[in-house]
Predict the structure.
Amino acid sequence: MSVRVGRLLHSRRPARETNIDLGKSSAYVVLFSEIGFVLLATVLAGTLAGYWLDQRLGTIPIFVLVGFAVGGSSGAIACWRLISRFLTEMDDSDKS
């Protein structure tokens, strides 16, 4: 659904032409929420795995930091792939 706004009556300048596409807006909301969940899950999994390993080995929290870094980097890679796939699909839908 798109709404086109024309020229306003008794206006000195023309109104901006806006297109509101609810399908694309909801797609962006889904993308951003998916990015949040992916980052949360990967960082949390890496940190918890590092904590578990530190508890098993009785070491200082070095593996928590390593797990956090591994979780953050894997989350960043996953987000990169999500965004790339999303932009490719948006370009394909704009062309057709």
